[in-house]
Amino acid sequence: MLSQYLFYFLSFLAVISALLVVFSKSSVQSVLWLIVTLFAISGHYIFLLNAEFLGVVQVIVYAGAIMVLFLFVIMFLNLNQEVEAHKPAVLKFAATISSGLLLIIIIGSLKGSEQLGTHVGSNDFSSIKNLGRVLFKEFLFPFEVSSVLLLIAMVGAVMLGKSEKEG
Amino acid sequence: MVNSELIIALIPLLPLIGFLLISLFVNRISKSLASLIATGSVLVSFLLAVIIFIKLIGLPVDQRVIQVNIFNWISVEDFSAKISFLIDPLSSLMLLIITGVGFLIHVYSIGYMHNDEASNRFFSYLNLFVFFMLLLVMGSNYLLLFVGWEGVGLCSYLLIGFWFKNKEYTYAANKAFIMNRIGDLGLIVGVILIFIHFGSIEYSSVLQAVSKQGGSEILTLITILLFVGAMGKSAQIPLYTWLPDAMAGPTPVSALIHAATMVTAGIYMVARNNILYTLSPISLNLILIVGLITALFAATIALTQNDIKKVLAYSTVSQLGLMFVALGVGAYSTGIFHMTTHAFFKALLFLAAGSVIHGMQGEQDIRNMGGLRKYLPITFYVFFIGVLAISGIPPFAGFFSKDEILAKAFEHSPVVYGLALLTSLLTVFYMFRLLFLTFFGNARATEEVKHHIHESPKSMTIPLIVLAILSLVGGWIGIPEVLGGSNQVGEFLDPVFTSSQVLLSEHALSRSTEIILMSVVVVSTLILIGVAYSIYVSKNTVPQKENSTLSPFHTLLYNKYYIDELYDSVIVKPLKKIAKVFYRLIEKSGIDFMVNTFGNSIVSGSKFARLLQAGDIAFYIFAMVIGIIVLIATGGLMK
Amino acid sequence: MKTVQGISLDYYIWLSAALFTIGVLGVLYRRNSIIIFMCIELMLNAVNLLLVAFASYYQDPQGQVFVFFIMAVAAAEVAVGLAILVLMHMNTKSIDIKVLNRLKW
């Protein structure tokens, strides 16, 4: 029972803070609410879904690195004071309607998908040891490629960030 | 027999290799190398053909068939076509003619074309032609025959229009090509019918099936359609008008393609399918009638022509008609025999005419010649031999073959004999007219031309001499029994025509009749020569200039019975008018309208659709989300 | 019905669908491109959550490995995307998505 309460709590937290990401007035607040969402999801990973490794990585990469990057950019560009123009009400209404439709359709299409897969692993499938084995055996090549991708992204970001006069 | 298979495969392959070598390096190799390759490849082919011929002779009479399968070409369900060659007496004789005469003409061309800047191109076409012609006669099925048939048509087109800078010449090439296309349509439809009816396109299986089934209406239809193809290729009425115009090409081409080989493809085809024709008397009669009319018709036209090559061209048409007469009365080997001798003496005549033209700086009008005997002695003698041969003076080649045709015609019916005799007498007259006007009498050339007249180089005269010898002795392979010979060529070809001969009742003429017929021909020929001599040498008559008034009949002949004009007004002009109507009605207001409407609607539609691309990312995302919703929803509904 | 610790898989489907839709809503709703960017991250996380949930229910480590790769790609994407945003702000003094209206033709 405890785990069900935990699920409801974390889910509620995630959805509410996600809504606040969209609707809060200032960008910095949005970022902070997104961090809360990410933490809630990481809680799901760690406490409910037996994915401790991913939960930790989620916190480190998303909450730790990516969101800091967002925050840094917002402060760097001094965007917080800026008064953001909002879309007209009609468009906002249309946006809400269409995302509501999307929700219904996604849930409808995902219904019954739990029967699609097959039960494969043993109980310790999500141990870091086991994950590492899968990652470095079956997915060794994609893993190496992703490191190249990160390198390219780094170089690309530096190139873009450089002011054009120097280039 | 591995050895002879290789040899057989090499015979057509060598000219093809020669063609590829010359045409790929057309601008890189020197003229002498190109002519060496071309001539050499045909010479080697000729030698190989001789080897095969000797091998064939060495075999027992009833086993003289060698079939060589090279590879399977097409194999689709129940249709299969092989690249395979059939060597039997008929095709081996054709091989000898094509490669032998072809080789001589190649040698001649070295001299004739040495001043032409595009002589490499000329030799490559010539080699290609030899290749296709060999394919035509060697192929063991109708499809290969058709490939060769089309191939020689293409080469004929290329070579007639060889001097394509002259518009008239390209028109002549087009005319030949289109006329041939009409005939080829008949041929291909005939071949398709053969496949539908017999389920195979191999000669051997078709012939077997035919012998079992006997004649039928569909067989008549097939043979008539095949003959339509022959009409086009062998220049018979009504598709003969291209051949005289085809003289636009270089003279060696006229000799090789339009006298010795390609135009005889029709004869070969009919002879190859002799059993089919024998079993459908209607088609056989059609061949006889068409051949007779063409022979007579062309001979009368030739009486009045003044262009040395045109005369020879009409003479070719007429002689081809005579060959068809022979085929039409069921004397297949006689037709082939005459084709052989004709190949010798007509090639000789054309090449000699080419030598005259060469010596006269391109002059082709016999009204401007005369008295050339002094200037071109070798050419004169060989031309004279050619004329004697075509006129059927014993013991020249033409005498034996022509006489055999006349004898067979007499067996068939006296009327046919009469008309054929008339044709051959007309031939005598116009050939001697040509000879006398060209080589006897006063020299009518202008002083400047006269100054330049010269005998042709050795590379031209040697082939002429060889051909002249062949024109003399070529007929000796078929000396009839009456004169103490044994008609070897007939016996040699017999295996091919065995099944036909069983069906055709043969009532040989008595010896006395045959001798009487012969003497009639010879005597009347000699009389006619005398007449021609008195007109053109003693009285020195020269055909009048273009615009002078002639007798109505003469005008009719001079204008070739207005056949070209008739075709023009009956077929070409109405077709053009119809085409104009179609152009306005269907092309302009139909197809163009439709296409333009499509284009316009797309242009205006995109003017509207362009507005969607406002560049607003927010809108793009919105549209994307809507699209995703629709996609997933339809995906769900499809389930 | 499959459960992990007494929770049905359906619940996770609903949760991640909700989070994904909120992400889409944010993208459609706002004009601030940084918020839009964050909403994209939110969508990625919703998908990740579903992947991890499926991986747990089928006890298949591959789902988790996939999430790991998505994170790596997301990190790269954010680095480049934010660099572009910085450049855009330097050039136009705005991060309003309306400014990016030259994506035509």
Topology summary:
The complex is a heterotrimer of chains A (167), B (639) and C (105).
Chain A: H1 2-23, H2 27-48, H3 52-77, H4 89-110, H5 128-137, H6 140-161
Helix pairs in contact in A: 1-2, 2-3
Chain B: H1 2-24, H2 31-58, E1 66-76, E2 79-87, H3 89-112, H4 119-138, H5 142-160, H6 167-198, H7 203-213, H8 217-233, H9 242-245, H10 251-260, H11 265-272, H12 274-278, H13 281-302, H14 308-328, H15 332-359, H16 372-375, H17 377-391, H18 397-412, H19 414-439, H20 447-452, H21 458-473, H22 488-503, H23 511-538, H24 552-558, H25 563-609, H26 617-638
Antiparallel strand pairs in B: 1-2
Chain C: E1 3-4, E2 7-8, H1 9-29, H2 33-58, H3 61-92
Antiparallel strand pairs in C: 1-2
Helix pairs in contact in C: 1-2, 2-3
Key structural traits:
heterotrimer, B: 639 residues, mainly alpha, 2 strands, C: 105 residues, Helix Hairpins, 3 helices, 4% strand, elongated
Description:
The complex is a heterotrimer of chains A (167), B (639) and C (105). Chain A is an all-alpha fold and 167 residues long. Chain A folds into two domains: 85 residues, Four Helix Bundle (Hemerythrin (Met), subunit A), CATH 1.20.120; 44 residues. Chain A has six helices and no strands. The mean pLDDT of chain A is 85. By secondary structure, chain B is mainly alpha-helical. Among the domains of chain B are: 234 residues, no CATH class; 76 residues. Chain B has 26 helices and two strands. A two-stranded antiparallel ribbon of chain B has the order 1-2. In chain B, a hairpin with a 2-residue loop joins strand 1 and strand 2. The longest helix of chain B has 47 residues. Chain C is mainly alpha-helical. Chain C has a single domain, classed as Helix Hairpins. Chain C is built from three helices and two strands. In chain C, a hairpin with a 2-residue loop joins strand 1 and strand 2. In chain C, helix 2 packs antiparallel against helix 3.
Low-confidence stretches of chain A: none
CATH class of chain C: Mainly Alpha
CATH topology of chain C: Helix Hairpins
The ordered H/E elements of chain A are HHHHHH
Most extensive protein-chain contact, per-chain counts: A-C, 88 and 74 residues
CATH architecture of chain C: Orthogonal Bundle
End-to-end CA span of chain A: 61 Å
- Counting copies of identical and different chains, the oligomeric state is heterotrimer
Unreliable residue stretches of chain C: none
**What is the typical, i.e. mean, pLDDT of chain A?**
85
Largest sheet of chain A: none
